[in-house]
Design brief:
30% helix; alpha+beta; four-stranded antiparallel beta sheet; elongated
Length: 276
């Protein structure tokens, strides 16, 4: 015998959705050069900062060497002009030289210091370009196929895309719900007929795969969009689902099951006791 008593019953909604990578980064060449080596295996997991491509950096190393030489020359000029300005100071105070000569020495010293600062900036720029010849992954994730091969000229006039890295753990699931359903649900909660299931971040989400099987790891609802798509009259929602083994791939069609509200005085009965 089963005793039927009022209890809080969750209103579970099932909605269609698509999976999406939580982060997507396009790997691009930031300087022009010939691709010398590909340093990754296509379809593998990469770490943030891991080198992916090596470009020919010989021109940039030559520019760096020239900038270092220019800096050394500028620093030597500072030493000379500083010594001259210091030597002229007591002479100017004793009126042994004209004020114009002393001011010219001071100006030459300041100009030499400015040349050193300019040479340092040029050397720093050259060092940055040498570093850009080693193209690294901006994020951790799974990398797809290489979009260029060894010997290709990249970065000539534009930042050439070399590959795409996608972070799939966690994975996003974007799904939609008719705006009318959402408005009716909110009105019922406001009137007290239903109670809220919780705020975004606390609502659990279950993912059902295309074959009907249930994904074993539960996710959480991140947010519900503030606007309605005028073309479909749908509201977009997003959930975050853990994907440590990479079982889910971006672009999969799935169904999302979540509890959006609760009936405070619902009655549950065994299915065998219910007749059509």
């Amino acid at each position: 015998m089963v005793k039927a008593e009022p209890a809080s019953v969750g209103l579970v909604t099932e909605l269609p959705g698509r999976t999406e990578a939580s982060r997507i980064a396009q790997v691009r060449a930031r300087v022009a050069g010939i691709v010398q080596r590909q340093l990754f295996r296509e379809g593998s997991d990469v770490k943030a900062g891991q080198p992916l491509f090596r470009l020919d950096d010989a021109p940039y190393r030559a520019t760096l060497a020239s900038a270092q030489a220019a800096l050394a020359r500028a620093e030597a000029n500072v030493m000379q002009t500083r010594a001259q300005a210091e030597r002229y100071k007591p002479l100017a105070e004793a009126n042994a030289i004209s004020q114009q000569e002393y001011i010219a020495a001071q100006a030459a010293f300041k100009q030499a210091e400015a040349d050193v600062a300019s040479a340092k900036a040029a050397m720093q720029t050259a060092q940055i370009n040498v570093g850009y010849a080693a193209v690294a992954s901006p994020i951790a994730g799974r990398i797809g196929r290489a979009l260029v091969t060894e010997g290709a000229l990249v970065g000539q006039g534009e930042a050439t895309q070399l590959a795409v890295v996608q972070q799939i753990d966690p994975l996003y699931v974007n799904f939609t719900q008719p705006a009318g359903e959402v408005m009716r649900l909110r009105a019922a909660i406001a009137s007290g007929a239903y109670t809220s299931a919780g705020s975004a971040g606390s609502v659990a989400v279950t993912v059902l795969l295309e074959d009907g099987s249930v994904y074993p790891l539960r996710g959480k609802l991140l947010f519900s969009d503030l606007s309605v798509d005028p073309s479909s009259n749908q509201i977009t929602l997003r959930a975050e689902v853990p994907n440590p083994k990479g079982a889910l791939l971006p672009g999969l069609y799935v169904r999302v099951r979540l509890e959006q509200a609760q009936v405070p005085s619902g009655i549950l009965l065994p299915q065998q006791a219910v007749q059509r």
